[in-house]
Amino acid sequence: MENKGLRIIKDIGVIAFLLLFPHFIPLPFYSYAIVGFVVIWFILRKEGNTFRDIGLSKKGITLRAFVIGLVSALVWVGFMQLLYIPVIKSLFTVPDYTEYNFIRGDISKLIMTIIAAWLIGGFYEEVVFRGYIQNTLEKKLLKSSTALMSIIITSVLFGFYHWQQDVFGVIAAILGGFFWSNLYKKFNNNLWISIFSHAIFDTITLVLIYTGKFGNLY
């Protein structure tokens, strides 16, 4: 029982570290992602696993995975642009979203931010949340619960990971997390599909922000 308790504490501690470290020990140029990635690699290796066990396999990089990622990203952009933002704006006074205003009218900054979106938003965040956290919840911490419970908790954690945004941005991130968590589960835990979907969504969103056509929510 003691060993089981220690394992639970360790798993919760790693999740807490991955959630809090980037915010409270901000390293330059997104280098916190390197730390987080190494931590996940170390934990997986210690447990006798690799990144393949969380869906990060070379075999998963296929044209089909990319197309699913592209189509799902377009669906999610449509949901945000045509439903979520209009509804929120009709019900509440929404503050202007200014986090990415620096890319407007500056193509070089847009390109650099898109690269960061693929590396951090798409790749790193999906490895952390869908790959590590969702799997840890489903296979270890919440084994007696349904997969849906792990998806919900992962989505909420993903939302609050974006607390630097306003409350409407956090809600949007929770919904996005739920979307990508279900996508990951639906396609047999192929992490590349949620990576492509997330990264393409971010790319389209950044282009819309660049052109001033996405509204005030990210």
Automatic annotation (TrEMBL):
Please provide the record's keywords in A-Z order. Answer: Hydrolase, Membrane, Metalloprotease, Protease, Transmembrane, Transmembrane helix
Q: Which stretches are transmembrane?
A: 12-44, 65-87, 107-129, 141-161, 167-184, 191-212
Pfam families noted in UniProt: Rce1-like
Any keyword Transmembrane? Answer: yes
Question: What GO biological process term is on the record, naming one?
Answer: CAAX-box protein maturation
Q: Which domain of life is it from?
A: Bacteria
- Keyword Membrane recorded: yes
Q: Which GO terms describe its molecular function?
A: endopeptidase activity; metallopeptidase activity
InterPro entries for the chain: Rce1/LyrA-like_dom
Task: Cite the CAAX prenyl protease 2/Lysostaphin resistance protein A-like domain residue spans from the record.
Answer: 109-203
Q: Which protein, by its recorded name, is this?
A: CAAX prenyl protease-like protein
